[in-house]
Amino acid sequence: MYLKMLMTSCAALALVLGSTAHAKVLNGTILCDTNGDRQIDAGVDVPLVGVVVNIDESGGAAVGTAATEGDGTYFFNLPNQQNVDYQLTLDGATLPADATFIIPASGSHEFNSSDGIEFTRDWLIDSELCREVETGGCWMTGGGHWREARGTPRHNFGGNVYPSCSPDPGEGGQWNHVRRRNGVHVLGQSVDVVRCGNVGGIPDGSTSPVTPFNFIEFEGEGRLTGQGNNRIPEQDVYFFARAEDRNEPGSGNDRYFIHAFTDPGDPEGSTVLLTDVDGDASTVDPVVISGGNLQLHASSCEE
C-alpha cells in the first residue's frame, strides 16, 4: 500500500515537473522613446503602464490579453501547444493618442510556438508625451484667427506668452481669445509655460526666428467677460493652450488649441471655450489656424 502511494506521488510529481518544464511563456516590455534615438534604452525610455497586449492565433482566434505593469513589462502563459502561429498587437485605446510604432515598425509581432519555450517581444513607441522637453527657454508672440466652417463663430486670439520670463501682465504675459458672434472673451492675465518641445513627424525647431522648439504649451488664469449682446457676468477663468509654430508666415500651417473653464476641479464640466479639432476637451488636438502667425522665441528663461 505504501509503495503504491509512493509510486502515485512520484507520478504526480513527474507530471507537474514535466508540465512546468514544457510551459511556454510570453513576456516583454513596452517603452516610449524618450531621447529620440529610435532604439530601446533601458533605464532611459519611459515605461508605458496599462497598455493591453492582444494575443491571437494568426487565424484570428483570440487567446488572451496581458497588460503592462508599472515598469512597462507584461507576462502571459501560453497554451502548451506545438506549431501554433501567434500574432501580438497592442490595443490602441491604451496607447497615447499620437503613438506610432518604432519597434516593430509594423506594430505587431508574429511567432510560432514551436520556436522555443520563452518568447520575449518588446515594443518601442514614439509619442510626444514622453519625449524630453524643456519647461523653460521659450516664449511666444503672435496671434491669428480660426473659423471651423462657414456660418460658425470666428475666433480671434493673440498676445505674449511669458516674455521676460514673467507671467505678469506688466511684463507682457497676457493672452486674449475672443469667440465672435457668441461674444465670449477670455483674458489671460497670468501665464505660465508648461513645456516646450518638438512636434513629431516634422523637422525640429523653427527658423523665423531660430529656436530649438516648434511647440509651446502654456496655462494661466484671468477673466471671462461677455461682448456685444452677451451679458454674462464677469468671472474668474482658467485655461490651457498649445501653439505650434510649424512654418513661416503665410504658410497656413501653424496650429492652436485652447480650453478655458471656470472650475479647476472640473475642467471639462465647466468648459466655456474650446478650440479643438474633435471638440473633446480631454485631448489636445490643435486646429490649423485660418490666418495669422504664431512665433516661438528662445530666451534665457530658466525653470
Q: Radius of gyration in whole Å, from Cα?
A: 27 Å
Q: Which structural class do the helices and strands define?
A: mainly beta
Total of DSSP H or I helical runs spanning 4+ residues: 1
Summarize the main sheet: 10 strands, antiparallel
Oligomer: single chain
List keywords for this structure.
single chain; 303 residues; mainly beta; Immunoglobulin-like; 2 domains; ten-stranded antiparallel β-sheet; six-stranded mixed β-sheet; elongated; disordered N terminus
Please tell me about this protein's structure.
The structure is a single chain. The protein is mainly beta. It has two domains: 21-130, Immunoglobulin-like (Sandwich); 138-298, no CATH class. Helices cover 7% and strands 44% of the residues. It has one helix and 22 strands. β11 (138-146) and β12 (155-161) form a beta hairpin. It is elongated, with a radius of gyration of 27 Å. Residues 1-21 have low confidence and may be disordered.
